[in-house]
# Entry
Amino acid sequence: MRIAIVGAGLAGLTCGRALAAEGCPVALFDKGRAPGGRLSTRRTDTSLGPVAFDLGAPFITADDPAFGAELAVWQAEGTVARWPAAGARAWVGIPGMDAPLRAMGRGLPVRWSTRVEAVAAEAGGWRLQGADLDAGGFDVVLTALPAEQTATLLRPAAPDLAAVAAALPSAPCWTAMAAFARRLDGVPDLLSERGGPGDTFAWAAREAAKPGRSGPESWVIQAGPDWSRRNLERAAADVAADLLGRFFAAAGVAAVQPVHLAGHRWRYAASGAAGRNTLWDPTRGIGACGDWLLGPRAEHAWLSGRRLASAVAATRASAASQPGP
Ligand SMILES: Cc1cc2nc3c(=O)[nH]c(=O)nc-3n(C[C@H](O)[C@H](O)[C@H](O)COP(=O)(O)OP(=O)(O)OC[C@H]3O[C@@H](n4cnc5c(N)ncnc54)[C@H](O)[C@@H]3O)c2cc1C
# Structure
Protein backbone atom coordinates (compact mmCIF):
# COMPACT_ATOMS: atom_id res chain seq x y z
CA MET A 1 0.00 0.00 0.00
CA ARG A 2 1.77 3.21 -1.19
CA ILE A 3 0.52 6.22 0.73
CA ALA A 4 0.80 9.92 -0.21
CA ILE A 5 0.31 12.56 2.47
CA VAL A 6 -0.28 16.16 1.39
CA GLY A 7 0.85 18.57 4.13
CA ALA A 8 3.72 17.97 6.56
CA GLY A 9 2.67 20.11 9.50
CA LEU A 10 2.10 18.48 12.88
CA ALA A 11 -0.86 16.37 11.66
CA GLY A 12 0.84 15.15 8.47
CA LEU A 13 4.16 14.35 10.13
CA THR A 14 2.42 12.53 12.99
CA CYS A 15 0.36 10.50 10.54
CA GLY A 16 3.40 9.78 8.34
CA ARG A 17 5.57 8.69 11.26
CA ALA A 18 2.93 6.38 12.64
CA LEU A 19 2.31 4.77 9.24
CA ALA A 20 6.04 4.41 8.56
CA ALA A 21 6.37 2.71 11.96
CA GLU A 22 3.72 0.22 10.76
CA GLY A 23 5.89 -0.55 7.74
CA CYS A 24 3.78 1.40 5.22
CA PRO A 25 5.69 3.18 2.47
CA VAL A 26 4.77 6.88 2.76
CA ALA A 27 5.63 9.94 0.68
CA LEU A 28 4.90 13.42 2.05
CA PHE A 29 4.56 16.66 0.10
CA ASP A 30 4.59 20.18 1.54
CA LYS A 31 4.60 23.57 -0.12
CA GLY A 32 6.73 25.05 2.70
CA ARG A 33 10.54 25.10 2.58
CA ALA A 34 10.93 23.45 5.99
CA PRO A 35 8.86 21.80 8.75
CA GLY A 36 6.55 24.01 10.76
CA GLY A 37 3.20 24.83 9.21
CA ARG A 38 1.32 26.78 11.85
CA LEU A 39 4.08 25.90 14.33
CA SER A 40 6.70 27.72 12.25
CA THR A 41 9.70 29.68 13.44
CA ARG A 42 10.95 32.43 11.13
CA ARG A 43 14.67 33.18 11.32
CA THR A 44 15.71 36.64 10.12
CA ASP A 45 19.03 38.48 9.90
CA THR A 46 18.84 41.96 11.42
CA SER A 47 21.42 44.65 12.17
CA LEU A 48 21.47 43.16 15.70
CA GLY A 49 22.26 39.66 14.40
CA PRO A 50 19.94 36.71 13.74
CA VAL A 51 16.50 36.80 15.38
CA ALA A 52 13.97 33.94 15.54
CA PHE A 53 10.22 34.51 15.79
CA ASP A 54 7.63 31.82 16.55
CA LEU A 55 5.09 33.25 14.16
CA GLY A 56 2.34 30.66 14.67
CA ALA A 57 1.37 29.12 18.02
CA PRO A 58 3.25 30.93 20.82
CA PHE A 59 3.04 27.80 22.99
CA ILE A 60 1.12 24.54 23.17
CA THR A 61 -0.77 22.66 25.88
CA ALA A 62 -2.04 19.11 26.36
CA ASP A 63 -5.41 18.02 27.74
CA ASP A 64 -5.29 14.56 26.20
CA PRO A 65 -3.08 12.12 28.16
CA ALA A 66 -1.64 10.62 24.97
CA PHE A 67 -0.48 14.04 23.74
CA GLY A 68 0.83 14.76 27.25
CA ALA A 69 2.88 11.57 27.02
CA GLU A 70 4.19 12.64 23.60
CA LEU A 71 5.26 16.01 25.05
CA ALA A 72 7.18 14.12 27.74
CA VAL A 73 8.97 12.17 24.99
CA TRP A 74 9.80 15.41 23.15
CA GLN A 75 11.04 16.90 26.43
CA ALA A 76 13.36 13.92 26.92
CA GLU A 77 14.60 14.40 23.33
CA GLY A 78 15.24 18.06 24.12
CA THR A 79 12.86 19.53 21.53
CA VAL A 80 10.37 21.10 23.99
CA ALA A 81 10.43 22.65 27.47
CA ARG A 82 7.88 24.15 29.81
CA TRP A 83 7.36 27.93 29.69
CA PRO A 84 5.99 28.94 33.09
CA ALA A 85 5.40 32.57 32.01
CA ALA A 86 2.50 31.27 29.91
CA GLY A 87 1.10 29.08 32.68
CA ALA A 88 1.87 25.74 34.29
CA ARG A 89 0.56 23.81 31.27
CA ALA A 90 2.47 25.67 28.55
CA TRP A 91 5.22 24.10 26.44
CA VAL A 92 7.43 25.63 23.76
CA GLY A 93 9.77 24.13 21.19
CA ILE A 94 13.52 24.40 21.83
CA PRO A 95 15.13 26.49 20.32
CA GLY A 96 12.01 27.31 18.24
CA MET A 97 8.43 26.06 18.05
CA ASP A 98 9.35 24.14 14.92
CA ALA A 99 11.92 21.94 16.77
CA PRO A 100 9.71 18.86 17.37
CA LEU A 101 8.51 19.00 13.76
CA ARG A 102 12.05 19.21 12.43
CA ALA A 103 12.89 16.13 14.51
CA MET A 104 9.80 14.29 13.25
CA GLY A 105 10.61 15.19 9.64
CA ARG A 106 14.06 13.63 9.82
CA GLY A 107 13.96 10.14 8.37
CA LEU A 108 10.65 10.70 6.57
CA PRO A 109 10.56 11.16 2.80
CA VAL A 110 9.15 14.69 2.61
CA ARG A 111 9.29 16.68 -0.64
CA TRP A 112 9.47 20.32 0.57
CA SER A 113 8.67 23.36 -1.60
CA THR A 114 6.14 21.23 -3.48
CA ARG A 115 2.59 22.52 -3.71
CA VAL A 116 0.04 19.84 -4.60
CA GLU A 117 -2.54 21.42 -6.88
CA ALA A 118 -4.63 18.40 -7.85
CA VAL A 119 -5.50 14.92 -6.59
CA ALA A 120 -6.55 12.87 -9.61
CA ALA A 121 -7.92 9.35 -9.80
CA GLU A 122 -5.97 6.95 -12.01
CA ALA A 123 -6.38 3.23 -12.66
CA GLY A 124 -6.24 1.53 -9.27
CA GLY A 125 -5.19 4.59 -7.28
CA TRP A 126 -4.26 8.23 -7.11
CA ARG A 127 -1.95 10.73 -8.77
CA LEU A 128 -0.73 14.05 -7.35
CA GLN A 129 -0.12 16.97 -9.64
CA GLY A 130 1.36 20.45 -9.35
CA ALA A 131 3.66 22.88 -11.15
CA ASP A 132 6.75 20.68 -10.60
CA LEU A 133 4.93 17.53 -9.63
CA ASP A 134 3.38 14.56 -11.37
CA ALA A 135 3.58 11.54 -9.07
CA GLY A 136 1.34 8.50 -9.39
CA GLY A 137 0.96 4.93 -8.24
CA PHE A 138 -0.49 5.77 -4.80
CA ASP A 139 -3.04 3.38 -3.36
CA VAL A 140 -3.99 5.91 -0.69
CA VAL A 141 -3.97 9.70 -0.57
CA LEU A 142 -4.36 11.59 2.71
CA THR A 143 -4.52 15.32 3.28
CA ALA A 144 -3.22 17.09 6.41
CA LEU A 145 -4.16 20.70 5.61
CA PRO A 146 -6.33 23.45 7.09
CA ALA A 147 -10.05 22.94 6.35
CA GLU A 148 -10.29 25.45 3.47
CA GLN A 149 -7.28 23.95 1.67
CA THR A 150 -8.63 20.44 2.27
CA ALA A 151 -11.94 21.42 0.68
CA THR A 152 -10.28 22.93 -2.39
CA LEU A 153 -7.93 20.01 -2.98
CA LEU A 154 -10.41 17.19 -2.36
CA ARG A 155 -13.47 18.68 -4.12
CA PRO A 156 -12.90 17.10 -7.58
CA ALA A 157 -11.81 13.66 -6.24
CA ALA A 158 -13.96 13.31 -3.13
CA PRO A 159 -16.71 15.97 -2.98
CA ASP A 160 -18.33 14.30 0.03
CA LEU A 161 -15.16 14.66 2.13
CA ALA A 162 -14.57 18.17 0.77
CA ALA A 163 -18.06 19.19 1.90
CA VAL A 164 -17.26 18.35 5.53
CA ALA A 165 -14.17 20.57 5.40
CA ALA A 166 -15.96 23.38 3.52
CA ALA A 167 -18.48 23.68 6.36
CA LEU A 168 -15.75 24.66 8.86
CA PRO A 169 -14.29 28.09 8.12
CA SER A 170 -11.14 29.06 10.03
CA ALA A 171 -10.46 32.38 11.76
CA PRO A 172 -7.55 34.46 10.45
CA CYS A 173 -4.72 35.95 12.51
CA TRP A 174 -2.46 38.88 11.61
CA THR A 175 0.96 38.55 13.25
CA ALA A 176 3.62 41.22 13.73
CA MET A 177 7.28 40.42 14.44
CA ALA A 178 9.44 43.19 15.92
CA ALA A 179 13.03 43.37 17.20
CA PHE A 180 14.45 46.22 19.27
CA ALA A 181 17.93 47.47 20.14
CA ARG A 182 17.04 47.61 23.84
CA ARG A 183 14.77 45.82 26.30
CA LEU A 184 11.22 47.14 26.72
CA ASP A 185 11.33 47.57 30.48
CA GLY A 186 8.14 47.17 32.45
CA VAL A 187 6.41 44.89 29.92
CA PRO A 188 5.67 41.32 31.12
CA ASP A 189 7.01 38.46 28.97
CA LEU A 190 3.48 37.59 27.86
CA LEU A 191 0.84 40.26 27.41
CA SER A 192 -2.79 39.49 26.60
CA GLU A 193 -5.45 41.97 25.61
CA ARG A 194 -7.96 39.21 24.82
CA GLY A 195 -11.45 40.49 25.53
CA GLY A 196 -10.03 43.88 26.60
CA PRO A 197 -11.46 47.21 25.52
CA GLY A 198 -9.31 47.44 22.36
CA ASP A 199 -9.52 43.72 21.62
CA THR A 200 -6.87 44.20 18.96
CA PHE A 201 -4.42 41.51 19.77
CA ALA A 202 -4.73 38.16 21.47
CA TRP A 203 -1.15 37.69 22.61
CA ALA A 204 2.20 39.43 22.58
CA ALA A 205 5.20 37.29 23.57
CA ARG A 206 8.80 38.28 24.32
CA GLU A 207 10.62 35.69 22.24
CA ALA A 208 13.97 35.77 24.06
CA ALA A 209 12.20 35.06 27.38
CA LYS A 210 11.20 31.58 26.21
CA PRO A 211 13.49 28.76 27.35
CA GLY A 212 16.42 27.90 25.08
CA ARG A 213 16.43 31.28 23.33
CA SER A 214 18.96 34.07 23.25
CA GLY A 215 19.37 37.10 21.07
CA PRO A 216 18.00 40.62 20.98
CA GLU A 217 14.72 41.90 22.42
CA SER A 218 12.09 40.59 20.04
CA TRP A 219 8.32 40.28 20.16
CA VAL A 220 5.59 38.43 18.31
CA ILE A 221 2.24 40.21 18.47
CA GLN A 222 -0.86 38.32 17.33
CA ALA A 223 -4.08 40.12 16.48
CA GLY A 224 -7.44 38.78 17.61
CA PRO A 225 -9.75 37.11 15.06
CA ASP A 226 -12.24 39.98 14.69
CA TRP A 227 -9.55 42.61 14.16
CA SER A 228 -7.71 40.27 11.76
CA ARG A 229 -10.88 39.71 9.76
CA ARG A 230 -11.63 43.44 9.53
CA ASN A 231 -8.06 44.17 8.38
CA LEU A 232 -7.48 41.01 6.32
CA GLU A 233 -6.63 42.57 2.95
CA ARG A 234 -4.38 45.38 4.20
CA ALA A 235 -0.65 45.37 3.34
CA ALA A 236 1.52 43.43 5.79
CA ALA A 237 3.86 46.36 6.53
CA ASP A 238 0.89 48.62 7.37
CA VAL A 239 -0.69 46.06 9.66
CA ALA A 240 2.59 45.36 11.47
CA ALA A 241 3.07 49.08 12.21
CA ASP A 242 -0.55 49.38 13.35
CA LEU A 243 -0.31 46.33 15.64
CA LEU A 244 2.97 47.55 17.12
CA GLY A 245 1.40 50.90 18.02
CA ARG A 246 -1.55 49.15 19.66
CA PHE A 247 0.85 46.88 21.56
CA PHE A 248 2.77 49.88 22.98
CA ALA A 249 -0.53 51.48 24.02
CA ALA A 250 -1.78 48.30 25.72
CA ALA A 251 1.59 47.76 27.46
CA GLY A 252 1.57 51.37 28.66
CA VAL A 253 5.09 52.12 27.40
CA ALA A 254 6.39 54.82 25.06
CA ALA A 255 6.77 53.76 21.43
CA VAL A 256 10.26 52.61 20.45
CA GLN A 257 11.52 52.39 16.87
CA PRO A 258 12.11 48.68 15.99
CA VAL A 259 15.24 47.64 14.11
CA HIS A 260 13.15 44.99 12.37
CA LEU A 261 9.39 44.86 11.77
CA ALA A 262 7.43 42.46 9.56
CA GLY A 263 3.86 41.21 9.30
CA HIS A 264 2.46 37.81 8.45
CA ARG A 265 -1.16 37.05 7.55
CA TRP A 266 -2.48 33.63 8.61
CA ARG A 267 -5.65 33.25 6.60
CA TYR A 268 -6.47 29.94 8.30
CA ALA A 269 -5.05 30.30 11.82
CA ALA A 270 -7.71 28.93 14.16
CA SER A 271 -9.82 26.05 12.96
CA GLY A 272 -13.35 25.03 13.82
CA ALA A 273 -14.12 21.51 15.07
CA ALA A 274 -15.89 18.91 12.95
CA GLY A 275 -16.46 16.72 15.99
CA ARG A 276 -14.78 13.68 14.47
CA ASN A 277 -11.24 12.32 14.54
CA THR A 278 -10.60 11.89 10.85
CA LEU A 279 -12.17 11.49 7.44
CA TRP A 280 -11.35 8.10 5.93
CA ASP A 281 -12.95 6.22 3.05
CA PRO A 282 -11.30 2.77 2.98
CA THR A 283 -13.05 1.79 -0.24
CA ARG A 284 -11.59 4.63 -2.28
CA GLY A 285 -8.39 4.95 -0.21
CA ILE A 286 -8.77 8.67 0.49
CA GLY A 287 -8.87 10.55 3.77
CA ALA A 288 -8.03 13.68 5.72
CA CYS A 289 -6.63 14.68 9.10
CA GLY A 290 -5.84 18.05 10.67
CA ASP A 291 -6.69 20.12 13.74
CA TRP A 292 -10.05 21.24 12.27
CA LEU A 293 -11.50 17.77 12.69
CA LEU A 294 -11.19 18.03 16.49
CA GLY A 295 -10.46 21.64 17.44
CA PRO A 296 -8.19 24.66 17.06
CA ARG A 297 -5.07 23.53 18.91
CA ALA A 298 -1.86 21.67 18.15
CA GLU A 299 -2.92 18.68 20.19
CA HIS A 300 -5.97 18.29 17.95
CA ALA A 301 -3.70 18.13 14.90
CA TRP A 302 -1.52 15.50 16.58
CA LEU A 303 -4.51 13.40 17.71
CA SER A 304 -6.18 13.57 14.31
CA GLY A 305 -2.95 12.60 12.51
CA ARG A 306 -2.37 9.67 14.82
CA ARG A 307 -5.96 8.42 14.55
CA LEU A 308 -5.95 8.61 10.76
CA ALA A 309 -2.78 6.52 10.73
CA SER A 310 -4.50 3.92 12.95
CA ALA A 311 -7.54 3.81 10.67
CA VAL A 312 -5.41 3.37 7.54
CA ALA A 313 -3.20 0.73 9.21
CA ALA A 314 -6.32 -1.18 10.31
CA THR A 315 -7.64 -1.17 6.72
CA ARG A 316 -4.28 -2.44 5.49
CA ALA A 317 -4.17 -5.19 8.12
CA SER A 318 -7.70 -6.30 7.30
CA ALA A 319 -6.91 -6.37 3.53
CA ALA A 320 -3.79 -8.44 4.24
CA SER A 321 -5.83 -10.99 6.23
CA GLN A 322 -8.36 -11.54 3.39
CA PRO A 323 -7.77 -14.76 1.44
CA GLY A 324 -6.27 -14.07 -1.97
CA PRO A 325 -8.00 -14.85 -5.30
C1 LIG B 1 -1.26 32.54 15.04
C2 LIG B 1 -1.55 31.17 15.60
C3 LIG B 1 -1.67 30.98 16.97
C4 LIG B 1 -1.91 29.69 17.49
N1 LIG B 1 -1.97 29.51 18.83
C5 LIG B 1 -2.05 28.24 19.34
C6 LIG B 1 -1.94 28.01 20.73
O1 LIG B 1 -1.78 28.94 21.54
N2 LIG B 1 -2.02 26.71 21.19
C7 LIG B 1 -2.18 25.66 20.32
O2 LIG B 1 -2.19 24.50 20.75
N3 LIG B 1 -2.30 25.87 18.99
C8 LIG B 1 -2.25 27.12 18.49
N4 LIG B 1 -2.34 27.33 17.13
C9 LIG B 1 -2.80 26.24 16.27
C10 LIG B 1 -1.72 25.21 15.90
O3 LIG B 1 -0.59 25.86 15.40
C11 LIG B 1 -2.36 24.28 14.87
O4 LIG B 1 -3.50 23.64 15.46
C12 LIG B 1 -1.44 23.17 14.32
O5 LIG B 1 -0.15 23.64 14.06
C13 LIG B 1 -2.11 22.63 13.05
O6 LIG B 1 -1.32 21.60 12.49
P1 LIG B 1 -1.79 20.92 11.12
O7 LIG B 1 -0.75 19.95 10.77
O8 LIG B 1 -3.21 20.46 11.27
O9 LIG B 1 -1.84 22.12 10.05
P2 LIG B 1 -0.67 23.06 9.50
O10 LIG B 1 0.33 23.34 10.56
O11 LIG B 1 -1.37 24.23 8.88
O12 LIG B 1 0.04 22.17 8.39
C14 LIG B 1 -0.42 22.13 7.07
C15 LIG B 1 0.78 21.99 6.14
O13 LIG B 1 0.28 21.84 4.80
C16 LIG B 1 1.09 22.56 3.91
N5 LIG B 1 0.25 22.83 2.72
C17 LIG B 1 -0.84 23.62 2.61
N6 LIG B 1 -1.38 23.54 1.38
C18 LIG B 1 -0.58 22.68 0.68
C19 LIG B 1 -0.60 22.18 -0.67
N7 LIG B 1 -1.56 22.52 -1.55
N8 LIG B 1 0.38 21.33 -1.06
C20 LIG B 1 1.36 20.95 -0.19
N9 LIG B 1 1.42 21.40 1.11
C21 LIG B 1 0.46 22.24 1.52
C22 LIG B 1 1.53 23.78 4.70
O14 LIG B 1 2.74 24.31 4.19
C23 LIG B 1 1.68 23.21 6.12
O15 LIG B 1 3.02 22.81 6.38
C24 LIG B 1 -2.08 28.60 16.59
C25 LIG B 1 -1.95 28.80 15.20
C26 LIG B 1 -1.69 30.08 14.72
C27 LIG B 1 -1.52 30.27 13.23
